[in-house]
Specification:
By secondary structure, the chain is α/β, with parallel strands linked by helices. The chain has helices spanning 50-56, 87-100, 113-124, 143-153, 162-173, 182-192, 206-214, 225-229, 249-258, 281-292; strands at 5-6, 9-15, 21-27, 36-39, 65-68, 106-111, 129-135, 193-196, 199-202, 236-241, 263-267. Helix 4 packs across helix 7. The chain starts with a strand and ends with a helix.
Length: 293
């Protein structure tokens, strides 16, 4: 059966080397030029990029935008071996998708874990990266932010409706995201949750949350400055949520010192990780990519 195509949007399910199929959504499938590839966060999926993909794939930008949902998230296959939910494996999955789509080089947007994947690709496939947008992620991860994610993944409250899911999200993160309207919280709930067998559930393999909750953050973490340094000759944009606990303003300052052409912007009224369709962010991202093309 062919993959469905609607209004220039194509949903594909692409096999990676170990046989799992990943959900890949293409906006602007007929557009030419270097595509923009979007990589979501730890428990997130390609729905996070719907708004920015619609903008970038439309006139005057006319980019082909590809959102890759990592294994175990969204409509991508769950991995029967949970130990494969690692950044290096997921980075190689990205390369496999690029190969099957015949994409030799692309611009990349990476949110949180997606940005960490880009640091790995800088080591292994730098020649395939044209430019990078890092959404609330950098070479140093703050322990406070990691523990905050652990605590969030440990919460067990299950919503009965999407409206209740939006309220749960607002109660948990509202202090960090004062910029979000009720409509934004509802949209976020639709991106994070899905209805399965009459239940509203988070849209990722629970094993991912179990592994992250089991991580020991009492030990110092290795930084990624050597990997970030590999991006020195490429256009790089970093977005930091104003209230982010994972990416500090001090780290962004150091990134600017080590990459003099770095474009650093702050997502006002947002925490980790910023929604890319709010405020001036969409046009800032589009402007950065237009200059990088």
């Amino acid at each position: 059966m062919p993959d469905p195509v609607t209004n220039g949007i194509e949903d594909r399910f692409i096999s990676v080397p170990d046989g799992l199929k990943l959900h890949v959504r293409v906006h602007g499938r007929e557009n030419s030029g270097l595509p923009v590839v979007c990589l979501p966060g730890l428990t997130r999926n390609g729905r996070d990029f719907e708004a920015i993909a619609r903008l970038l794939s439309s006139a005057p930008h006319d980019c082909k935008v590809i959102s890759i949902t990592s294994r175990g998230r969204g409509l991508s296959d769950r991995d029967p071996e949970p130990t494969r939910y690692t950044i290096p494996v997921e980075a190689m999955d990205v390369v496999a998708v690029l190969d099957q789509l015949a994409i030799e080089r692309a611009h990349f947007i990476g949110t949180s874990r997606g940005g960490l994947i880009l640091h790995v690709l800088a080591m292994t496939h730098l020649d395939r990266i044209a430019s990078v947008v890092l959404n609330d992620i950098g070479p140093v991860l703050e322990i406070e932010g990691l523990r905050q994610i652990q605590a969030y993944l440990g919460r067990r409250r299950k919503p009965q409706t999407f409206a209740e899911a939006a309220l749960i999200l607002k109660e948990a993160h509202g202090d960090e995201f004062p910029a979000l309207s009720d409509e934004d919280w509802q949209g976020l709930a639709s991106a994070i949750y899905r209805e399965t067998d009459g239940e509203i559930v988070t849209d990722y393999d629970p094993e991912i949350g179990i592994q992250f909750r089991a991580a020991d953050f009492n030990q110092p973490l290795a930084d990624l400055w050597p990997q970030f340094a590999l991006l020195a000759d490429l256009p790089v944009m970093v977005i930091r949520g104003e209230h982010s606990r994972l990416l500090s303003s001090e780290t962004v300052d150091l990134m600017s010192e080590r990459h003099p052409r770095l474009l650093a912007v702050t997502a006002s009224g947002q925490g980790h990780a910023p929604l890319l369709d709010l405020g001036p962010l969409p046009e800032q991202i589009a402007g950065f990519l237009n200059k990088s093309i």
